[in-house]
Amino acid sequence: MSSPSILVADDHPLFRNAVIHALRGALPGATVAEAASAASLGQALDARPDTDLVLLDLTMPGAHGFSALLHVRGEHPEVPVVVISSNEHPRVIRRAQQFGAAGFIPKSSPAETIGEAVTAVLDGGAWFPPLTVERSEQDAALAARLAQLTPQQFRVLLCLADGLLNKQIAHELGLAENTVKVHVTAILKKLECHSRTQAAVLVKSLEPEGPPVE
């Protein structure tokens, strides 16, 4: 792919610039857009339906660990996502794979590695560091449950995790309060949760595990 459209989602401008520089070196014809939060990531994808690849940091504002990855995979399943993170713990890499990422690039990687990984994924493949952690059936089950949610229900779920009341969620998402109630009921049923608190705890489980590597 000679002129792919790539979206770099990271809240650190200096790191975004470094990634963009690496992309320019590996793919001189690439078109690159930027996002600095989970909200702007969604807006950028809606505005750029021709996006071929997303490079995604896990710790942006508005994201609960892997929630942004799951949201993109649910709302734009045709767009591959490569996680790029300073947390290189093997458990985090394995979870990214199980939650639908097409690749994982440690932030400590040289520019050549970024280019290699992006090229591999754009060619239809995958790119991960060697994995030493076994696949988790618990994560597989969690991903399957979350995949049942519509994009709007996923947004409502993230608001629940932030402790918002139905009225606040309605204001945040521009919905009628009764519509929020319907979504909450459906969310709890699909996730097999008995309470809003239990659903919030489930979202918290999406946080990466293992110490970040500086």
TrEMBL record:
GO terms for molecular function: DNA binding. Residues 5-122 form the Response regulatory domain. Residues 142-207 form the HTH luxR-type domain. The keyword tRNA-binding does not apply. The modification 4-aspartylphosphate is found at D57. It comes from the Bacteria. The keyword tRNA processing does not apply. CDD domains: LuxR_C_like, REC_NarL-like. Keywords: DNA-binding, Phosphoprotein. PROSITE patterns: HTH_LUXR_1, HTH_LUXR_2, RESPONSE_REGULATORY. PANTHER family: HTH-TYPE TRANSCRIPTIONAL REGULATOR YHJB-RELATED (PTHR45566:SF1). This is DNA-binding response regulator. It comes from Pseudoxanthomonas japonensis.
